[in-house]
Amino acid sequence: MRLGFHISIAGSLQECIRRAVKRRCTTLQMFSGAPVQWRRPPMTDRQASEFADGLLERDIQPHFLHAKYLLNVCSPNLDLREKSVADLCEEVAIAGRLRAAGVVMHLGSVGSEGHVEEGTERVARAIDAACEAVPEGPPIILENSAGQGNIVGATFEQLAAIIASTHRPERVRCCVDTAHAFGAGIALHTQDGLEAMLTEIERTFGIDRLALLHVNDSKVPFGSGRDRHWHTGLGEIGREAMARIVNHPRLIHLPFIMETPGTEADDVSNMRRIRRLIRPENRPPLPPLPHDLR
């Protein structure tokens, strides 16, 4: 089991490592630049290599890139779609340089007049383009959605349809966000509902294709169709349900990434809470905190 957060790279890649160490991460997720800007800060090969080496040295593995929020590879707007596909190609190339385990992506919206089936096909073509642009690159990881605004990925069948449509299914993995699933009406907050979710994953895209979990509680009620993350065990999913998720024998081998809101102190508290939810026999050792960060 690996525990971590989405970590900011503001300042430098080395600052990202420092933030991860202070939060006692053993895995992490990051953006390669500002998530709401198309431009990225320059990154030299030396910087990328030193970052990857620094994470390996501290046993923070695996690490993931998250594609920008601006991306909408299934948009009905051709200009935005083409720009999004080009940026995804660049993101996969950067992930390769950073030795990341994959690029997690939101699948985008087909708009109020669009059809989800059109969206799944467009996502598949975007994956094909990225794989062609970076033939030996890391996996592209499809994240489920809460379904708001005609966003693709609210069901696992939609993720499976994308995988079935791409020419490079071996390059595709999936990420399940617990808050998104809860918002989409998947009853993972109950024992039977969690088992049903895992059965549905196996039936559709296959549980072996899961690369990581986004372990987020929800600030909004079940089936709201909304994406609002909250602190571990303190939201609508709740402590008991989150404990079942993080201790489930079919999930404990996965990296768990928290995308909880707030400050560094909030992250430290969330790490403490999630560790308390993990049964002692499953709980990983707490990484040491260097003296200069105490």
Question: What is the structure about, briefly put?
Answer:
With 294 residues, this protein is of the alpha/beta class.
Pick out its properties.
8-stranded parallel barrel; TIM Barrel; globular; alpha/beta; two-stranded antiparallel ribbon; 9 helices; 38% helix; 294 residues
How would you describe the overall organization of this protein?
The chain has helices at residues 13-22, 45-57, 78-97, 116-133, 156-165, 178-183, 191-203, 239-246, 264-277; strands at residues 2-6, 27-30, 63-66, 103-105, 140-143, 172-177, 210-214, 217-218, 229-230, 255-258. It has a single domain, classed as TIM Barrel (Alpha-Beta Barrel). Strands 1-2-3-4-5-6-7-10 form an 8-stranded parallel β-barrel. The radius of gyration is 18 Å and the shape is globular. It is of the alpha/beta class and 294 residues long.
